[in-house]
Write the structure tokens for this entry.
Amino acid sequence: MVEWVMAEILHNPYVMRKVEDELTEINLAYIVAGYTIPKGCTVNMNVWAIHRDPKNWTNPLEFKPERFLNTKWDYNGNNFKFLPFGSGRRICPGIPLAEKMLVYILASLLHSFEWRLPKDEEFELADEFGVVTKKKVPLMAVPSQRLSDAGLYMG
Ligand code: HEM
């Protein structure tokens, strides 16, 4: 079959030219979701918007950790609605460390202390633009003993 097609193409130079033109074209531009992306373009995915899109999330701006309970959430870059660590060959290589440490640190803080905001501390969640999104005003929180025996905080 390949031999027949190749023979036909070689006998029809206009078909050969068309094939060559199309191959060059494909190298120059990709079409993604109907948009032509010229060669050399830097394409940034707006994960900020994807994570706030009500088509993907119910009440996306609501802090509702329960939404992640009872379901296995894929954050390894395969679920394009949820990309906290990015996707593809430059995906965050720190996922195994992050998923253990984040839970461990939060669990330790919440288990060990009772937390409250200082008096007159306003609730605010402004962020600061940067390589990573930091809180604009650092969080001030007051811990108090939660464990029954103060000795448990030592060592
Ligand atoms: C909750 C914690 C973390 C989050 C949300 C996070 C998120 C991300 C994101 C979104 C990227 C960009 C991926 C892309 O371009 O598609 C990234 C890259 C990267 N992360 Fe993380 N990360 C976390 C923790 C860590 C930790 C603990 C380490 C190392 C110990 C780490 C090391 C890196 C490195 C080296 C890259 C660059 C990878 C590359 O460009 O090839 N990250 N991370």
Remarks:
- The radius of gyration is 27 Å.
- The beta strands are 29-32, 35-38, 113-116, 127-128, 134-135, 142-145.
